[in-house]
Specification:
- Helix 2 packs across helix 5.
- By secondary structure, this protein is mainly α.
- It contains 14 helices and two strands.
- It has a domain of 163 residues.
Length: 300
């Protein structure tokens, strides 16, 4: 309860979009850990609109949650909310069930795309390793000035920039077309000015010069310390598709006839129905591969 209360207080004062996303990740993690208890705490707040305002802010911020960890928390938290018995949910969340279900599917697609890209990058790096060693020998003999690698940093940055732009475009593409049922505008002029400033930053050095932490400029020492910190979490190794499908099966069993899950699926458009079916197919393939691997291990 203290974590949620402190997070809500900090959200009111936060000035940067990045920190806002991190605080929303805390709320999503709480929903995943115990959705019923978290919703109960939010709804018991003296300010009757705190839960509505918080979820409106969360829905508004989905377009900015481009990193894998954030997307996983969206899937986990939204799935946890859908798993709560309908009679325990506030009306405004019930109205958003279909949009949240749709968002989960689209987040899972994006997570798959990112995982596939990383696998391809890893395989390409391994395939090119021997060639790079041969090239190094040739360059050592034939390039006295050593100018071939002068543009490496620029090319690396351009490559990262293109990949991030592609992920951002995909993120916008997969947002529900009708949006969410928002009662209030959760953005303000300060947020928009900060967003516009971020969008204009085209290079790492420009980004570093205006990086904020809680509204204050970071010193060089603080910045280096933050960038050297590698965050890891158990959810990074979770099979997100299987988690989602297992949750849907549990909801079907709880309801006795699968009326809710049938309603959610029927509310999807043809594209999202196809995406959901592809996710189911992927889960089946993963299960077959796992079963085969276990059988091979047991036989050996």
């Amino acid at each position: 309860m203290k974590i949620i209360a402190l997070t809500l207080v900090k959200l009111k004062a936060v000035k940067t979009k990045t920190l806002k996303i991190r605080l929303l990740e805390v709320i999503m993690a709480c929903l995943y850990y115990d959705a019923e208890a978290t919703l109960s705490i939010l709804l018991s707040n003296p300010s009757s609109s705190v839960a509505i305002d918080l979820f409106n802010l969360l829905f508004d911020s989905l377009k900015d949650m481009a990193r894998d960890y954030s997307m996983r928390l969206v899937v986990l938290s939204f799935t946890a909310v859908l798993s709560v018995r309908p009679e325990l949910l506030p009306e405004f969340l019930g109205k958003n069930f279909h949009a949240m279900f749709q968002q989960i599917i689209r987040e899972l697609v994006l997570i798959q795309m990112e995982a596939s890209r990383e696998r391809n990058d890893f395989e390409s790096a391994n395939d090119d390793e021997d060639e790079d060693e041969d090239d190094f020998d040739e360059d050592d003999d034939g390039n006295e000035n050593g100018n071939d690698n002068n543009n490496d940093n620029a090319e690396d940055f351009d490559d990262r920039d293109r990949k991030q732009a592609a992920r951002n475009r995909a993120k916008k593409l997969y947002l529900p077309e009708g949006g969410y049922d928002e009662d209030e505008d959760c953005l303000n002029a300060e947020d928009e000015a900060y967003r516009e400033a971020l969008e204009k930053m085209g290079k790492d050095e420009e980004f570093k010069s205006t990086k904020y932490s809680g509204g204050d400029l970071l010193s060089d020492d603080e910045e280096d310390e933050d960038e050297n910190y590698i965050f890891t979490s158990p959810i990074e190794n979770m099979n997100m598709i299987q988690y989602f499908l297992d949750a849907m099966k549990s909801i079907e069993l709880r309801d006795g006839g699968g009326a809710l899950t049938a309603s959610l699926q029927n509310g999807l458009d043809d594209q999202d129905k196809a995406r959901l079916q592809e996710l189911v197919n992927t889960a089946q393939i993963q299960q077959l591969l796992l079963t085969s691997a276990n059988a091979n291990n047991n036989s050996s």
